[in-house]
Amino acid sequence: MSEPILRIVNLHAVVAEDQLEILKGVDLELPKGEVHAIMGPNGSGKSTLAKVLAGHPAYEVTEGEVWFKGENLLELEADERARAGLFLAFQYPVDIPGVSIANFLRTALQARSDGEVDIFEFQEKLLERMQLLEVDPSFAERSVNDGFSGGEKKRNEILQMAMLEPDLAVLDETDSGLDIDALKVVANGVNRLHEERPDMTVLLITHYQRLLNYIKPDKVHVMAGGRIVRSGGPELAEELEARGYEAFKEVAGAA
Fold this sequence. Notes:
36% of the residues lie in helices and 28% in strands. The chain is of the alpha/beta class. Strands 6-9-10-3-11-12 form a 6-stranded mixed β-sheet, with helices on both faces. A hairpin with a 2-residue loop joins strand 11 (219-224) and strand 12 (227-232).
């Protein structure tokens, strides 16, 4: 069996400001090219895990290891993690008035490649990616997330993912606040990108099984009380939908 692209061992993390422990011993392995989902109730640590992986300064790792493509992820700054191929789609994307999506993406690509990005090659790629995701070309001239609907913000996150072509994409509650039509568009974009790049690994973080109706995971993990308490196949998501999270909260509390 090949080395997993991401390996998390006994990860503990606290909120830097008040030292409140959120992650309490997370263990997780993601094989290259697979789609995994983490499900769990509010406050279980799902979004904290995503932010810790991305290097968010509001959280401090107190114990454990994280290995990404065989490299110690915790030794890298946030920008170094992104350049290494880690992408995070935020639950609540930030508005950047006055900066067009096209300029934002070109700057991000230049940072990723450590060099100048040819403007013509960039425009060609951007148009191709927008067609793939069913995004109108005029979208590129709008300011990043400024005045966007929830669906437009999430579609913009997937466009960023399509342009940056990460090795590991972490999607933090991408389905949050989306109606069914927007959810289908976003899910279709993720599926097309994964079909195009089957070696890309995807980690979906979600409350609800509905996203997994459209993006089929290879494995589902249940998070409760700051750690992974159960893992299984796609059928585990259906079990959660039917039973809820109470039983898993009890398991976490008894640990």
